[in-house]
Each structure stands twice: as structure tokens, then as C-alpha cells.
Amino acid sequence: MKMRINYSEATSILIILQTLWWGLNSQCEEPIESSKLDLSVTYDLPHFVSDTPVQKLLEFNGTVYVGAVNKLYALSKDLKKIHEYNTGPVHEGHDCSAPDPCSGCKNKPLNKNNTNMALLMETFYDLELFSCGSVGNGVCHRYLLEDGPLDAEISCMYSKKNKDSSYGCPDCLAGPSGTQILNVMSSGVVRFFVANSEVLDSTVPRLHHTISVRKMRETQDGFEFFSKQSYMDLAPGLRGNYPLHYVYSFQSGPYIYFLTVQREGGSSNAFHTRIVRMCSSDPEILRYVEMPFECIYSERRRKKRSAQVVFNVLQAAHVAKVGYDFQQEMGLKEGEDVLFAAFARSKPDSPEPTASSAVCLISITDINNFFRDFMQKGYTRKLSHFPGSEDKNFNQVRAFNQIMHFLQSVLARVAIWFIRDTGYRLEVTSTNPRRDYFHGRFRNVLLTSIAVVPIQNHTVVSLGTAEGRVIQVVVSRFGKTEPHVDFRLDALPVSSEMALLSPQRHDGSLLLVTGNKVSKVPLRGPGCEQLWTCNSCLLAPAFMGCGWCKTSDRCTRAPRCSPSHWIQDTCPLLITTISPSSAPLGGHTNMTICGKNFGFNKKDPCLLHWFTTTSCSLFLWREMFMSLCCMSGWSNPVITDIFPEFGPKSGGTVLTITGSFLDSGNMQLVTMGNATCALQSISATMLTCRTPPQPSPSQHKVQLHIDGVIREAPVSYTYNENPHISSVQPKHSFIRSALPPTFTFTFSHFTCSHDEDKRNILCITPSLKGLSVQPPVATKMTFVLDGFSTDQYDLLYVEDPKFEEFQKPTVTPRGNKSILEIKGNKIEAVKNGEVLRVSNRTCESVTLVGNTLECTVPMELQSAAKELEVEVRDSFILSSTSDHSM
Ligand SMILES: *[C@@H]1O[C@H](CO)[C@@H](O)[C@H](O)[C@H]1NC(C)=O
Ligand SMILES: *[C@@H]1O[C@H](CO)[C@@H](O)[C@H](O)[C@H]1NC(C)=O
Ligand SMILES: *[C@@H]1O[C@H](CO)[C@@H](O)[C@H](O)[C@H]1NC(C)=O
Ligand SMILES: *[C@@H]1O[C@H](CO)[C@@H](O)[C@H](O)[C@H]1NC(C)=O
Ligand SMILES: *[C@@H]1O[C@H](CO)[C@@H](O)[C@H](O)[C@H]1NC(C)=O
Ligand SMILES: *[C@@H]1O[C@H](CO)[C@@H](O)[C@H](O)[C@H]1NC(C)=O
Ligand SMILES: *[C@@H]1O[C@H](CO)[C@@H](O)[C@H](O)[C@H]1NC(C)=O
């Protein structure tokens, strides 16, 4: 739009307002940007597709190991297959005569697929990969990788010497319902902490301990337990019917942690999440403690108390170090580990998640402080689901810790039985709930995966959803940041299993699993194309490397645009509307300019320049989409006329004001004396309003007020007495059509006209034909004259008259008069209604004789007219030849 501003007319300079005016929202139509991101964009990312579903991922020294059903793959960094190992299918059954799970059954049908249950790397003794499957009782295979993945030496980790172990099967690591295995080196020994989710079938034999710690045999062909204290199993009554799911495990400092989803305990059937902590240096389960981990969100509701929602079931977690910014904001020490956990709300009394998630985070230091404080206060009890645990008070715990600390490196083995009595196996009964870090943003999504990586000074969280989307968001204080990436990776859910590839490098990436597919998502984002406006493009985190490509009008990375058209600091300015389009001279009109990219220039806000040269002060600047200034006018509104110039004192008359620039400025107000004339319509040249009432007949100035300036009409408006109606004639009408006598009348909306002296008004009664009413119909009528309502008057609708067909009216002389005779039925009303006219005159007199109407023809017609025109209402026009004239 073009706008001309006449600077010489600008008479005054402006008020500078500091306050923000949120009402502006309603003036500028904000672009439909519920999301800064175009959610339909997809990216073509490097990926690997396995023949079978993928369960586990592990990255080591640039090689990606993929554990899938019946397969173990070694992939290069760009996800090209280097090597594959077959791990199944196998034959299993009672008919198998093999002496151990490693030998396999020869010449038998392959009846069992081997699902990968655990994949772990051990580098202390050797460079070795352990892969444990669902077959062979969860016994693992060891891949010695000294010569690289192409030439691994494979051995089965089952020792025949263990066959009669009194501790069960030390080589059976992976349980069939899912397992979490952590290998930790402590004091020159690698310990394998194994936690197996409970199989919900009480008929299955129990080969796997629920939670245990073991080490590799020195012969490196199997595992062994230190003692009966090296494992715990669910209480016999709970086996097979106590859902206990190990979701995630990690090591931090001297501890190892497992995160579980299980029943709250006591009489409750509800599920919750717990943090389990053990000491990585303990060869037995000596120091074991659990604590609930609660993630909540408080929904703000107006007037009501805020409703607290508990996200009870953990879906995925990741322990990571955070970037410098977040570390500062959270007051964390450098290098401190933080647990990021994606929770869902479960169905009632079930661990099954619903599509409602939250993300809570806690530093490991805080977890340990909570454990310490609650144990110190005695908010503990013995474990209800594991038998043989004992309640210990904190003093015993502390004494134990001191002794342990003293003895640890010296005489561990001896010390252990000496102090075994003073170890602890407890559950903390209290918790400090954490709040959803994203304030309900993921309330309608099921998050299934989480990965956290520091990039430059930022901390980027990558979330996967059950719908196969990947969301990336920079975490900062209060979690108010918007995601900068949100795209569909696949139609299948994103698995909680993920791996990182060179995360500290600029081209680092995240490996995600969906079904049979492993995809490589760059940590700095898969691309910029989702950022569909220039502003969101340039405001995206710098590490994404996005810029606006002017040739394609898209957000891209530099290589996808010609360098001269790729901009990273200014968006092209676009103005959509300026309102008002004119403002009164001498007034102070707030002007709103709607558009995009106002002065979005990191170095030099361009529009500011425009404002200053137009003596216009910018006082609001929001979201870069609109702007507002207060400026002096450039138009001169004038009133040339008003109509009507008078009306009843009761008001309500529609007053039309004509002139020019009447619509300039932001607010127009018409006054008549002290009262306001309510605006009805407005344009540059015409304005209508409804006159206010006045107590008595009077004259008032008509004034137009616009943004502080006043314009007056050249004439005043006169209030008269309200109209008075002396009589209404006739009092009858016909059902079928209208009637044109001399009287005043209103039914609903129909036309009336004045006669010359303004004493009579002629109106046409409305037809009731369509209403199927039976005459006579008594009605009331009221006349609204310029907004003034009269009293009510009676009006009777009677049946339409019927004149005999083909019977022409006849005129017969009677004395020195002419009498017009009309034959008909039900024609009384014609007489009563005085609606019969002869050549546009009223009959001198009308009499009814039987079914004949006799009209005395007016004197002047008897001599003048040769032909008489007989008319009853509009619709009946009858002609007749006067006898008299013949
Ligand atoms: C990692 O791989 C490189 C070659 O890609 C190799 O030279 C190096 O020895 C490997 N390191 C380990 C610990 O295997
Ligand atoms: C193994 O898995 C394949 C699909 O991945 C399936 O078709 C087959 O029936 C499975 N075999 C057994 C024995 O379960
Ligand atoms: C990270 O933050 C520090 C301290 O504010 C600053 O000195 C450094 O330049 C920042 N690094 C990057 C890559 O922004
Ligand atoms: C212009 O907007 C400011 C901020 O809302 C307001 O205070 C001021 O009264 C407005 N001026 C006019 C003339 O409407
Ligand atoms: C307007 O109101 C003021 C005070 O309310 C009164 O003094 C004045 O006479 C009024 N003017 C008219 C024209 O009614
Ligand atoms: C018409 O006749 C009547 C009597 O029948 C008489 O009174 C009257 O004056 C006459 N009028 C004219 C205009 O001749
Ligand atoms: C009937 O008379 C009215 C005035 O009473 C006049 O305006 C109209 O033109 C006349 N109509 C005819 C057909 O002469």
C-alpha cells in the first residue's frame, strides 16, 4: 500500500510512551504460526536398514554395533555395513541333547529367533564386545575385537564348571523380559551389575536373578558370584505377578544406578518410578537403597486450585554432562552428571503409558543428597519386595561407611564378612518431586526416547515420540525455549535405545532406532528447512548454521544457496497494513504498522530510521511482526452537511453526517450537546449515528471528535416535540392486499409518504394473505416516526370483497344526481372502509342496498367526465361508462 505523508502539515511531535500495549495483538493479524516450525518437512538422513527388528545400539571407536533379531552388525560411521554375524535362529527344546547352551542342537529345525537383549563393551581386560540374546538362557557371546570387527574371535560365555553352582546359573545374564547390564571397573576388577525385569508368568523356571553383581571368571569363559549376597530375587510370593521393569541404568561416581517402574508398594496398585543405587565397589549387594522418583506438572486453572498431574512411568532416560550456559543457570559444578528422564502418565493401576509426557531432570549430586538426607532422618523402611533385607538406622549406615572407607583398598575380602552385618538394603519412603521442565509442552505426546548433548555452550535435548517424530530443543533456565527441530523420522515409534557418534565434534550425530532402521540425525539439526519464516530462521540457535536464502525464500544451510543470496543478519522487510490510513491534523493518533521483519537487523534496525525521519516515535516493537508509533496527523477531516436537521426529542433518529476524512484516526466520537450520538457506520465521506434523547425541544451543535481534534457541523440539530397523531383512518383493511386511504400506519416495515403540509401520512397496510388467518382479524398498529413510537391503534382486517363477475358497474341518474351501482358479495367493508373511488374521487355518499353498493357520483364528475373509473384499492380497477354522459 502507498501512503503519502505531508511533512509540512505535521504540526506537532509526539509523546513517547514506554508502556507496551498488548491490545495491539488484535489489530495486526499475526501470521498463523502456532509453531515456528513447518511440521510437514521431512529430511533425507543417512540410515541403515536391518533384515530384522533392531534392539540395541553401541558405538565404539567409530564403529556402530547393531544388535538385532538373529543378527549383529558392525557399521561404519556413515552406517555402511562392515560386517554381520548371525546369532540365530536356533533350535531349542526338550528334545535337545546338547550339554550346554553354547553347543547348540545339530540337525534340528530352527525354531527360536534370537532377540538381542544386551550389548556391552569391555575394554579393561581386552577389547571385547558382549552380546546377550534371548536364546540359550540369556548366555552371552564375547567378541574379541583386538583385530577389529572384521576378524573378531567369538566365544560363548558358559562355563561347564558352573553347572552345579549353588548360586544358580552365573552365566545366565539376560532374562527374557528385558535386562539392564552395567560393567564397571573397580579396584582392578570388572563387575557386571545385572538387573532383569520380571517375567509375568509364574510357570517359567527362574534361571535369572532379579538383581545381581558378578565378575568374569579368570579363565574368561564365564562368570561367577562372590557369595549368596551377590544377588537378590523378588520375594517368592511376588514372582511372576509383580510387574518390575528396569528401564535404564548408569554409573556416576562411586555408584551405579538402575531406574525402575514398579508398584508404589503398600496396598497401592498404582505404579511409580524408582531410583535404585548400589556401590560399584561392592562385590556383593551390600549397600543398596531405593527412592521414588516423581515427575509432576501443575496445571494452572483459573479460580480453581492448580491441579497436579503426576507423570509416573519412566519411558527413557539419559545421564549427561550439560553445556556451560545450563551449568551456570542451574548452579552445577563443572562436569557434573545430570539425569534427564522422559516420563508418561500411565493408565490407572497399570504401567502402560498414555500419550501424555513430561521431562524431569535432577543432578546426580541432588539424588545422592536426597538419599543421604532421607536416610539421616530415618525416612526409610526395609525393602518389601526383596526378602532378607533389614531396616538399618543411619548411625549404623554411617559407621559402616566409615569402616568400609578405611578397609576398602586394604583387606576387602576379610572386611566384607566382618561388616556384612552393617550393610543396608533399604527403601526411602519419601521423595522430592521434580517439576516438568517443559511446563506441560509434551502433555499430548508420548515421549519414548531422550538424548542430551552439550553443543558449544548450549545443552540440546533430543526427544523421540511414539509417532516417530524427533524434537530437538535447547534447554535453558525455566525451560521456556521452543523446539528448533520437530520432524517425522519414521512411522514407527522411536526406540529408547540410542547412541552418539562423535558428540563433541561439529558433525556429531545421534543414532536412533525405529523398527528395523537405524538413522543418523546430526546433533546440530537435520537441516534448516523447517524454519519457515525468515525471523525464526535467523533466530535459530547459531550452531544450526541456518541462513535465509533470498532466491528460494527458504531457510537453508550455506551450501544450499548462492553465497550472495544467503543472509544471516537481516530479513527482507514486508509491510502488510498501516492503520489508520489517515490521521487528523493536530491530533495524536496511534498508528499501527503490521508486517514482518521490522528492523530485524542485528546491526542497524532499519525501520527505526524511517520512524525518526517521519517524526514518529516508536514505542512498541513486538516479536518483529508489528510496530506502533504515535504521530501527528496528515489529513483534515471536515463536516459539510448533516441530514435531517431536526427530529423528535425522544431521539433515535438516524443522523447522516457527510464530509471528508471522517474516518481518519483511531477513534471517532459524535456529540450533540453533552450527549453522544451512537455511531452506526463510518466511511471517509459519510458517517451515521443514532441521535440521543433530549428532555425538551432544543438545538445542539453536532461535533466530531477524532484523536483529540474536534470538527463541527455547519448547522445545528433541532429537537422538536415528539409527533402527535390525531386520528387514523380507516379502521379496516382487507386480508388480501393493501389499502391506500388517508391515514398513518405502521405494521412492520413498509412505506409511507407525507402529503404536502406534513399533516397526513399515507401508508399501505401489509397483506395478511400468506398467513392463512380467518377474517375478521383484530390487530394493533403503532407508528415509529424517526425513532419515536406512537400509541397503539386498532385495525380490523376483514374479508376481501367479491364483485360479481362480468357485471359492469352501472351509472343511473336519480334526480339531478348520478348513482353508480356495483353488485357484489361481502362488500360492506368497501362501504365502511371508504375505499371506493370513482375517477380518483371519493363518492359523495355510499349506501348498501342488498348486495348492491350505491355510490353517489361526485358533482364535478357528473358534468366533466365521459367515462368513470371505478377503483376499489390498488388491485381492483373497474371501468364504466356513465349513462349520464351518453
Ligand atoms: C580406533 O580406531 C582406529 C582406526 O580407526 C585405530 O587406529 C585405533 O587403534 C582404535 N582404537 C581402539 C582403542 O581400538
Ligand atoms: C522369527 O522372526 C520372523 C520375522 O522376523 C518370523 O517370521 C518367524 O516366524 C520367527 N520365527 C520364530 C521361530 O519365531
Ligand atoms: C561460552 O561461554 C563462555 C563464557 O560466557 C564464553 O567465554 C565462550 O566464548 C562461549 N563459547 C561459545 C562457543 O559461545
Ligand atoms: C496510544 O497508545 C498508548 C498506549 O496504549 C495510549 O496510552 C495512548 O492513550 C494512545 N493514544 C491515543 C491518542 O489513543
Ligand atoms: C452540559 O453539562 C453541563 C454539566 O453537566 C451543564 O452545565 C451544561 O449546561 C450542559 N450543556 C448542555 C448543552 O446541556
Ligand atoms: C338537485 O335537486 C335537488 C332536489 O332533488 C335540489 O334540492 C337541488 O338544489 C338540485 N341541485 C342542483 C345543483 O340542481
Ligand atoms: C388522483 O389524485 C391525486 C391527488 O389527490 C393525484 O396526485 C393523482 O395524480 C390522481 N390520479 C389520477 C389517475 O388522476
From TrEMBL:
Cellular compartment(s): Membrane
Membrane topology of the entry: Single-pass membrane protein
Signal peptide coordinates: 1-26
SMART domains assigned to the protein according to its UniProt record, in alphabetical order: IPT, PSI, Sema
InterPro entries found in the cross-reference section: Ig-like_fold, Ig_E-set, IPT_dom, Plexin, Plexin_repeat, PSI, Semap_dom, Semap_dom_sf
PROSITE patterns: SEMA
Keyword Cell cycle attached: no
Family listed: Belongs to the plexin family.
Name by which UniProt lists this protein: Hepatocyte growth factor receptor-like
Organism from which the protein derives: Sinocyclocheilus grahami (Dianchi golden-line fish)
Source lineage: Eukaryota, Metazoa, Chordata, Craniata, Vertebrata
Underlying gene: LOC107574004
